[in-house]
Design a protein that fits this description.
Shape: globular
Structural class: alpha+beta
Mean pLDDT: 91
Number of domains: 3
Distance between the termini: 25 Å
Number of strands: 44
Helix content: 25-40%
Oligomer: single chain
Radius of gyration: 29 Å
Length: 746
């Protein structure tokens, strides 16, 4: 993704000022179309099964042994206590229901071969609401294979008087009485044999049926249309979802409507008659997450939403009943908005949901700004009279916003807080987010990044310079540094050296036509795995270095303290060769200067960094930014756990207490081998070594100008690598482009 240059930002700022001067409508309030779906947690169904469907006054589901169960729906609520297995039915691979409560089941012989699940033969049977068989259709001679079976497999879908079955390269259309009406050929649009892609039939309103196919990561929806007795798949109109990233999110089928829940936190319903996707509800309005794994539409006003909740290393299911109510009937709260660009984390979403549930005064809506157009809209909103109240700083140029004083100084709130103070946080983190003397944001956590090398080649002591890395490649000719791209290596390994060596920021001058710079480009291109793009990683033989992300204590053990004598964690190159590690801060939140409710915004930040941090520090996927919680994590890491028998510590044959493993898992080492590990408690020396790594970690935020410069170099260098231009021609273009950028920034 390319960043805008300083010149573009100047133009953009002018546009934003015009927009702010003109004013705009107030930010959308809670609810969609005048309604809110109020949520109620239902108990009793944790871990019971999956593939839930409602119809005929019953809620059906499959247990994990493929048997079908159902429970009555009374007064709009499923009665879990009355759940019972549907008698007279064998194990099913899938089932579905029609509007009258008729039940359709798919049976097949299931086996395993060539690493795939094999389905052979079987029947499709229809039963009436009383459980009596109406008809059956034989599938003798038919076969199908799949990489895995989803909890909602989507083999069956009902449309009017017909039932559709996905079987191999065809979709069978079976009419009333069990007669095969026609077959739709899907051989050319199915997922590849070697690709474990999603593939399902889904139901929609008015008897419509859809086929979802995921090929090489891209999901396409086809409507199954019949003309002259022939059924064929027709690519579906996605109007209303333009610009949405459909590789994420969930599609849900229902006879009351075809639904899509995306990463923007909105559940959309497809209006087949208008041919457009329309917003139905915002999950945050219901204080729920945006990734329901299943939905069962009980009636026009009631939905069941199923969520997989992972906490403390365990998973369970939470089921919520959603009841549609007019917005004005819901007790009012002060509405706050949190702007997020391109994505937001599960941790931040969880915190917002818990805050909304706990607060009697405030309700926060997370608003997603998608893509580059979203970035422009966000910048305009930040200076408008209706600016967001909170800003998720993830993936944003914090230096840009801080330099324009578009963010409030959180030091004022931190100094007055009765729960938090500056001393609670790692000093380097607060320094990194201090721009122009103002504390622009406070992250909840961070990770450390390091470079690894073979001890026999790089030595056993951390720390090196860029010159040391260059000499390493000369000592071992023909070997790549790693499989990463030229752009990625330029950014992570050489970025600081380039902006400090070839640019005089005080004078606004640069020198990219020097032989030294040309040699650097040539050298890095020769030793990178890929010459184009940024994120790609190529397989290279015996790389000289590797990169490790240290997110938790067991990562430090794997890649640093217990990696064996063959690997050394060198860190990234520094000017003086001392140990240096990079940091990635996570979940930093700031308050826009034009926020209309800064008091409420700080109340959330305080809650997030205090109550929520204390609740989640053990299960969080990274190190906490609060030093007290970090110390608590390290103290827990060095505290042994022992096997117990009858309340006593188990001992070995020599009477020594038997220590339990605190962590187990696997990781890829420098030689490309998958290493299984089982670690007991860390030693005090290991905890101190991790503290030392964090002490030498650079938390500095990279501003957009630096990223622009590295991006220009990588973009122009492709012309040389492709053979279109000489290196001299390329560096001349780089000199001109970067000179303009640097002069604008002086």
């Amino acid at each position: 993704m390319k960043k805008a240059t300083v010149c573009k930002w100047i133009i953009l700022t002018a546009i934003m000022l015009v927009l702010s001067a003109c004013g705009k409508e107030e930010r959308q309030q809670r609810g969609i179309g005048g309604y809110i779906y109020e949520s109620e947690l239902l108990s009793g169904m944790e871990g019971e099964g999956n593939n839930f469907k409602a119809g005929g006054g019953w809620l059906y589901y499959m247990d994990y042994d493929f048997y079908l169960h159902r429970m009555p729906i009374e007064d709009g609520t499923p009665r879990w206590a009355k759940s019972a297995r549907v008698q007279g039915l064998d194990r099913v691979q899938d089932y579905t229901l029609d509007a009258d409560g008729g039940l359709y089941c798919f049976y097949a012989d299931m086996g395993w071969g060539d690493g795939k699940i094999e389905l052979e033969g079987g029947t499709v049977a229809k039963y009436d609401a009383e459980g009596r068989e109406v008809y059956s259709y034989s599938l003798e001679g038919r076969k199908d294979t799949c990489s895995s079976l989803s909890s909602t497999p989507g083999f069956l879908a009902v449309g009017g008087e017909r039932v559709f079955l996905r079987s191999g390269d065809a979709i069978l259309v079976i009419g009333d009485g069990g007669k095969l009406l026609c077959e739709a050929d899907i051989s050319t649009i199915r997922p590849d044999d070697d690709y474990s892609g999603e593939e399902r039939l889904l139901e929609g309103a008015d008897g419509r049926v859809y086929y979802l196919s995921q090929v090489t990561g891209r999901r396409i929806i086809y409507e199954l249309v019949e003309e002259g007795g022939v059924c064929r798949p027709q690519a579906m109109n996605m109007k209303g979802l333009e610009g949405k990233d459909l590789t994420g999110g969930y599609f849900y089928g229902s006879s009351l409507g075809f639904l899509y829940g995306g990463v923007d936190g909105i559940l959309y319903r497809y209006d087949a008659r208008e041919g457009v996707w329309q917003a139905l509800l915002r999950w945050g309005d219901s204080n729920l997450w945006q990734d329901a794994v299943e939905l069962a539409w009980i009636s026009e006003d009631n939905l069941l939403a199923f969520f997989s909740i992972y906490e403390g290393g365990a998973a369970n299911t939470e089921v919520y009943l959603l009841d549609r109510k007019a917005s004005e009937t819901i007790p009012g709260k002060e509405e706050l908005s949190m702007a997020c660009w391109d994505m937001y984390s599960n941790e931040l979403e969880n915190a917002v949901i818990r805050f909304n549930r706990a607060s009697d005064r405030y309700h926060i809506t997370m608003e997603l700004y998608e893509g580059e157009e979203g970035k422009v809209r966000l910048d305009a909103d930040m200076v408008s009279s209706d600016a967001p109240d909170l800003l998720d700083l993830s993936n944003l140029d914090v230096a840009k916003y801080g330099g324009k004083q578009a963010l409030e100084d959180l030091s004022v709130y931190l100094d007055e807080s009765t729960k938090l103070n500056r001393g609670d946080f790692l000093e380097g983190i607060l320094e990194a987010y201090t721009v122009g003397g103002r504390l622009t944001g406070i992250p909840s956590g961070f990770t450390c990044l390091t470079m690894l090398g073979h001890t026999s080649e790089v030595g056993s002591q951390a720390g090196w310079t860029l010159e040391d890395i260059w000499e390493l490649t000369e000592k071992y000719p023909g070997r790549k540094l790693n499989g990463r791209s030229f752009h990625s290596n330029m950014d992570n390994i050489c970025g600081d050296y380039i902006v400090n060596t070839f640019i005089d920021w005080e004078k606004g001058e640069c020198n990219f036509e020097s032989q030294e710079f040309r040699d650097l480009v040539q050298w890095l291109g020769d030793h990178s795995g890929i010459l184009t793009g940024f994120y790609g990683v190529a397989e290279v033989e015996n790389p000289l270095t590797d990169t490790a992300v240290i997110m938790k204590i067991y990562d430090f053990l794997s890649y640093v303290s217990r990696s064996g004598e063959n690997v050394t964690s060198m860190g990234y190159p520094s000017a003086d060769g001392s140990a240096l590690y990079h940091a990635q801060s996570v979940n930093a939140v700031g308050i826009p200067a034009k926020s209309g409710n800064q008091e409420g915004a700080w109340e959330f930040i305080e809650y997030f960094l205090y109550e929520e941090a204390e609740r989640t520090w053990e299960s969080a996927y990274c190190f906490p930014s609060r030093s007290d919680l970090l110390e608590k994590m390290l103290e827990d890491a060095v505290t042994p756990e022992y096997w117990m028998i009858d309340g006593k510590v188990r001992t070995d044959s020599e009477g020594n207490p038997e220590e339990k493993w605190k962590w187990s898992g696997s990781y890829w080492n420098m030689d490309g081998e998958l290493v299984e590990y089982q670690y007991t408690a860390a030693t005090r020396e290991e905890a101190d070594a991790l503290r030392e790594m964090i002490a030498h970690t650079d938390f500095s935020l990279r501003d957009g100008v630096r990223e622009d410069i590295i991006g220009i170099i990588a973009e122009e260098a492709e012309s040389y690598f492709n053979g279109d231009k000489s290196l001299k021609e390329v560096t001349k273009v780089i000199q001109n482009r970067v000179s303009t950028l640097v002069q604008e920034g002086v």
